[in-house]
From TrEMBL:
Keyword NAD included in the entry's annotation: no
Keyword tRNA-binding applies: no
Cysteines paired by S-S bonds: 85-89
Keywords (A to Z) from UniProt: Copper, Disulfide bond, Membrane, Metal-binding, Transmembrane, Transmembrane helix
Highest taxon above the source species: Bacteria
Protein's UniProt name: Electron transport protein SCO1/SenC
Positions contributing to Cu cation binding: 85, 89, 174
PANTHER family for the chain: ELECTRON TRANSPORT PROTIN SCO1/SENC FAMILY MEMBER (PTHR12151), THIOREDOXIN DOMAIN-CONTAINING PROTEIN (PTHR12151:SF8)
GO MF annotations, alphabetized: metal ion binding
């Protein structure tokens, strides 16, 4: 009798844990670019503010203070992540890494700009660890963090949503986006969502550079 009660208790606990995980996943899934995660939005020459003209200072993974205007005369591919996100952020980083491997010429004068949704200025070495986790190296990779107000303004500039917690639970919900800019900071392409067709994604990014 006791064994049966214990078994039912473990089953109920398992169901409760599964529901918590499912609720967090649904929250993240529904916030991805305001559409389901697998809905691929591709905007050609979207009406967005010039990246180089954004006012604010950032800290990179080396602890160096930079402004986005410092990246003039370089094509950039930008994205936004939570450092500890284990859901869509690994997929975002994998897409960038695959693009880097597929397009080595981009590394010559292009930049991958990875903005964090959280303020990590006190520990920029965490940003370096973030890159190490995804096995990417080189000066063409920059992870940038700033104060909460600057991060919010930048996210609002590109109509991004993000939320680390919902009802006290860690969910790391956020829009998934890749923003391609030319050497003058003009946004030439914007990809929202995550595309399973990597060949198409790579080809469209190359066309935008």
């Amino acid at each position: 009798m006791q064994d049966a009660k214990a078994t039912r208790l473990w089953i109920l606990r398992g169901i409760a844990a599964s529901l918590m995980v499912a609720s967090a996943y649904i929250a993240w899934y529904s916030m991805s670019a305001d559409r389901p995660r697998d809905f691929w939005q591709d905007k050609l020459k979207p009406q967005r503010a010039n990246l180089l003209q954004f006012e604010g200072t950032f800290i990179d993974q080396e602890g160096k203070q930079v402004r986005l205007s410092d990246f003039a005369n370089r094509n950039t591919i930008s994205t936004f992540v939570f450092k500890d996100c284990g859901m869509s952020c690994p997929l975002i980083m994998n897409d960038l890494r695959l693009f880097h491997n597929d397009t080595p010429e981009f590394a010559k004068d292009g930049l991958f700009l990875i903005f964090t949704f959280e303020d990590h200025r006190a520990n920029p070495e965490q940003l370096k660890d973030f890159l190490t986790r995804y096995h990417v190296t080189g000066n063409q990779w920059r992870v940038l963090t700033s104060d909460a107000e600057t991060i919010r303004r930048l996210a609002d500039t590109y109509a991004l949503q993000y939320n680390k917690t919902i009802d006290g639970k860690l969910v790391y919900a956020h829009s998934n986006v890749f923003i391609v800019t030319d050497r003058k900071g003009r946004v030439t392409r914007e990809f929202r969502g995550l595309d399973n067709n990597k060949a198409r994604f790579f080809d469209e990014v190359k066309k935008s550079l």
